[in-house]
Please model this.
Amino acid sequence: MEYLSNKKFPINSKDYKLYEEVGEGVSATVYRALCIPFNEIVAVKVMDLERCNDNLDGIRHEVQTMSLIDHPNVLRAHCSFSVGSCLWIVMPYMASGSCLHIMKSSYPEGFEQAVIATLLREVLKALVYLHSNGHIHRDVKAGNILVDSKGAIKLADFGVSACMFDAGDRQRSRNTFVGTPCWMAPEVMQQLNGYDFKADIWSFGITALELAHGHAPFSKYPPMKVLLMTLQNAPPGLDYERDRRFSKSFKEMVGACLVKDPKKRPTSEKLLKHRFFKHARSKSFWPGLFLMALLTRCSVIAFFVHAKEADFLVQKRGKLPIHKDLVNGRALDENDDFHEDEVFGAIMPINEDRKESSRYDELVDTTRRVKVEIPEFDSRLDPSMFLDWLANLEDYFD
Model:
């Protein structure tokens, strides 16, 4: 297949430079990293095997699954190797993060229908591939839908996935209780007759509601209550007043997924043909949407980088800091916790050293421009403009 890269990533920790943490779990931490020989940014998942003594088979399965998969909508591992008591799994770096992160930071009330249709179509393609190869994902949710800098959408996290083809024979069902309660299918909770691929279809329907509302149904309740409500209540749907903005086809698609009897749910292949996905857009639709989310997050960093450097220049000249960013009408203390939108820059430098004053003015001007330009960001703009902005920002960290 064309998707598979011919690159053979190195299996020595010395060939990777770990940067900041981008994710953390009970026994694993994910880092943004540089693959030095290829000069390529990757993600490295570091798993502490001493904390996973009881689940070594699960780890082996996760690594095996991620290494063998070959589909553009499924995150695969470049390579894996051991470093002391840890296992390193090297993966593509998904710069835009998860759909959950994007939604929480920039779209707390949920995405528009066209966005949801486009996201779900790509996730469904991943499920068709996994199911046809005998895999149940078992943890489909917004937090496991990742987006890269070019807008590619990939389904990730195979820590709880299951293979229905063991020793060459197709198992009829699984009987293990895994997944996340809010997204878990009723048959997985009940553990009566086992479950199959259709459990992913239920989770897919819950994910659709999560993307529409900004949170999953029952997410405010403790796990045990979620289990009871899922089993005893009618399936959730797009029934609220605010859901009038969504089309009939969307409501029908969600309804088809959230049927308690798994036999009555469609297969992933059949669901992909649902008329709702006519609302989906092409890949070129993504850059503006996700870069907007990135720009909003990075603007806070930019603001403080410039402000801190401006203060440093003043202090370097032997004067008291006159950086007076006003927050609700008072001087800002460096330990204050505040929302970005509360900040108003009011820096007035005293010009003595011409070179430093010029740099100072440039910093102040850039800080103000960053604040002004964010609301004006248009999805039709060339994404390279944003990447250039980020490149310039990185200069201040060097």
Observations:
- Residues 288-395 form one domain.
- The chain is about 40% helix and 15% strand.
- The chain has three domains: 13-92, 97-281, 288-395.
